[in-house]
Hints:
The protein contains 14 helices and 5 strands. It is mainly α. The strands form 2 sheets. It has a 3-stranded mixed beta sheet. Strands 1-2 form a two-stranded antiparallel ribbon. β3 and β4 form a beta hairpin. The longest helix has 22 residues, at 210-231. It is elongated. The two termini are 36 Å apart. The relative contact order is 0.07. It comes from Gymnopilus junonius (Spectacular rustgill mushroom). This is BTB domain-containing protein.
Amino acid sequence: MNLDQPLYIYEKDQVPLPLPSDQTLVDENPDYFASSIYGPAEPPSLQSYVQIPVSTAFHANAIPPPNTLFLSSDGVSFHVRNETILESSPRHLKHISRQQIIRLDAPSAELNIILHALYGTSAAAYSPDTNILVNAIDRMPTYGILPQSVIWPLTHLYYLLLSHAPICPLKIYALAAHHNISALAISASAHLLSYDLTTITDDMAERIGAIYLKKLLTLHIERNRSLKQILLRPPHPHPPTNECSFTNQDRLTRTWALVSAHFVWDVQPDITDVPERLSCGICLEVLEDKIKDTVVQWASVKRTI
Length: 305
């Protein structure tokens, strides 16, 4: 879905294209942009019109009526209500109560994410990729917005980020760690269980930080330790029979060692050749029960930081 559409048409000689590189023009003459927005009293000729892209979500016809206009770095207009913005960013954007138009250095795709977060609405319909989400959240502190204040369980942005965790788990975990969004980091860590931590670069490790990097390392170490403890306990021998004595059941222990090796390497038991190794039906039942019990124990091991 397109982020913007040309909802408004302005006269060429009334809209400054390209826009000024600083805020001086707006500060000295606050009515300058206002006259550009609303146009003249009489309709001009068709040749003098140009299209200005306006956000499809934050437009002038929104309810309640917007009273502030944000311009993204790529020229897209976002009509917002300053009271809503000030609730989440009262310090850095407090000057919006004195200006009707504010130019920001964020591209429209990122500004769209930020404004949806402030409004508590979902930006999922725009299908932003992971990099756009990460850049938008990294930009929030620049505008005095604490990511923790708009990203927490039950918020739309939280679930949008979480939906990217299976695809880019390390990026989402690093984002959560960098901004100390604990709930998101915990959820994202479940997707890093099979991740090779030795491939983490120095820059990524620095972004994650010592605390959350230690938590992730500890999770992997503890899970490996738990797996070893589960696998080191061999199956209990069954009562001896005429066909299978205690001595013959040594084969059951060796077979379990083979199955354990499959658990370690593939985290899944491979018993396709077990019948060839075990001729005792009771031993086979004992082994199958042991495998089921091992799977249950492994599933109960902690999966998040």
